[in-house]
Protein: DUF4267 domain-containing protein
Organism: Streptomyces chrestomyceticus JCM 4735
Amino acid sequence: MHVGLLRTVGATTTLYGLAVTTWPGLLAKPSGLAEATGRTAPATRTSLRPLAWRDAACGLALVLAPAGPALRTAACLRIAADFGDAALLGVTLPGRARRRAAVAVSLGWGALSVAGVLWPASGRRDRGARA
């Protein structure tokens, strides 16, 4: 397991989740969920905030979990969330280009976590991760 990679994914997704929780337009606009004026409707903001909070919580778990089984479990949650996003957003977002972009981003983040879990444990950076 590559602890450093998983911690980096965790920190990044924590910050992104907190940012989208605060400013849902960061996710709504590129996803095609904002109004033509660029404004994010109250119902859309309400719907996106729990998704963003989930990302923040999963990311924080990757940052704080001790190396070993707890970190592996946190990574599996992150992977399930990212691959679930790819599956659901890939068929529900408006516009083919937006759906493809959402799938690419979601699969990319999920793949980073998969790589972190599957990385062979060796060397100083992975010490304590051989569970």
The chain has a mean pLDDT of 94. The chain has five helices and no strands.
